[in-house]
User: What shape does this take?
Amino acid sequence: MSRLGKWIIVLLVFGLILFAAVQFVIIPKQNAAAEQYLVDQKKPLTHDVEYIKQYKNPYMGNAANTTQLFGHLPLYDMLKDFELKSDDLTVIVNFNKSTTGINTQLLDQSLIYNSTAAFALIGNLEKIEYYFADKTIEVNRKSIETRYENFNELTESTETWNEQVRSPLKDHEYVKDFIQEISVEYK
Assistant: This one.
């Protein structure tokens, strides 16, 4: 076999090795990381605020933006539909589950997280009504704003958000007190 033929075989083998490494090692790792990131967006303790910053808007009347925001917050996999009451500056979020079908701690953390995110990102939103199959939970802007020193700066940096919003949600007593203070429930 000629020298050129040997080089062609060496290059072919090297190309096949690189192809196999990319197809069977690198791409699966990237896909797994992307999948894990999406799974992390379902829980308030692992949700990334950068994932939703693009939905910041001064007006809640932008229906597509508001719908997309709630579609990217924890509990999004239980959403049924939305209603906007522009005159009352209220968003109604309808879920296809009852609260008894959701872990209480996860539900409370998610309601705090989602409400804080919505009020921080939608400038004129005043109230959110969460409709579950068994009850309705209302949260208003003032009840959320009073829980944070510099509410308008929460979404300025991921570090600030994690420090003031996400990390405190690890404390069961904090969540219990917070949810009692901010929500009004109706059966």
Remarks:
- Residues 69 and 118 are 8 Å apart (CA to CA).
- The two ends are 84 Å apart (CA to CA).
- Residues 49-186 form one domain.
